Each structure stands twice: as structure tokens, then as C-alpha cells.
Amino acid sequence: MIDLKELKKYCNPSYLTIRNDKIIVGNKGLARLSKEKMRKIENDFGIPVVYSRVFEEISERMGRFVSKNNIISPKDKILVGLSGGKDSLALLHLLEPYRRKYGVQIYAVTVDLNINGIRPWTESNKNVENK
To answer: Which of 38, 43, 84, 122 has the highest Cβ tally under 10 A?
Structure first.
């Protein structure tokens, strides 16, 4: 797990997606990251820092949309339909900084569509856990 206090010595982590296996840059300028700082973070934290101009553009557009439309508020609970595809995984990565910045709770949910004839959500299935 990345120590945010330590990371703040290098950059502004509010514009980064922090995973266990990598750091993804959402906005290089606002995060105050240069190539040199990214290399230093990789060396000092032992974790790759990934930058993609495409991801940065999507992150910026999403940030403007969320801000303009007041979509996310502090302590919100956000449910993301997780298919395992690129779109839903990208959305989870884009939302991660909001979790840290605003304390939102993000839940990823998958749905079994009964493809193999098994309905895991029926009462007759004893593997279902009710919460």
C-alpha cells in the first residue's frame, strides 16, 4: 500500500489512480509530475507509474462533467456495473481518486445472466448469501 503522506512529497496524488500494482496518472500537470518525478516515484516506491495521454484526456473530460453537473458529492455511494471489459474497468480507475478526495464508496457489481441455466439469485440456491 502506498503511503500518501510520502507520495505527497513528490506530487499531488489527487490526480492519480493508485492501485496495489501501479499508479496511473490522471492529470500530469495538476499532479505536478515530470518524467523525472515519475522515475523517482518508481524507484522509491517500487511501483510503476503509468502515463497515457488518452487516459489523461478522458480523466479531464470526466472531471469537468462531474464538476459542471455536480454528480458526485462527498460520502456518496457509487455502484458500477462491472463486466470485466475495458469500459467498466476504466470507469473504476477514473473514480478511484474521488474515493480518496471525497470519501465516496465505490462498489463494483457483476450480474450472472443465467447463461448456463443456473440462477444464483434464487432462494433454492443455497450458495446465495443474503445481506
So the answer is: 38
The Cα–Cα gap between 78 and 1 comes to: 23
pLDDT tens-place values along the chain, 131 residues long: 899 999 999 999 999 999 999 999 999 999 999 999 999 999 999 999 999 999 999 999 999 999 999 999 999 999 999 988 899 999 999 999 999 999 999 999 987 666 676 666 666 555 555 54
The model's pTM:
0.78
**Which residues have C-beta within 8 Å of that of residue 47, sequence separation ≥ 6?**
2, 21, 22, 23, 41
Measured CA to CA, the distance from residue 124 to residue 102 in angstroms comes to 40
| Helices and strands of the chain, counted as H and E runs | 4, 5
Report domain extents, the chain.
4-109
Tell me if residue 3 falls in helix, strand or coil. Answer: coil
All three cell numbers of 69, joined, read 453537473
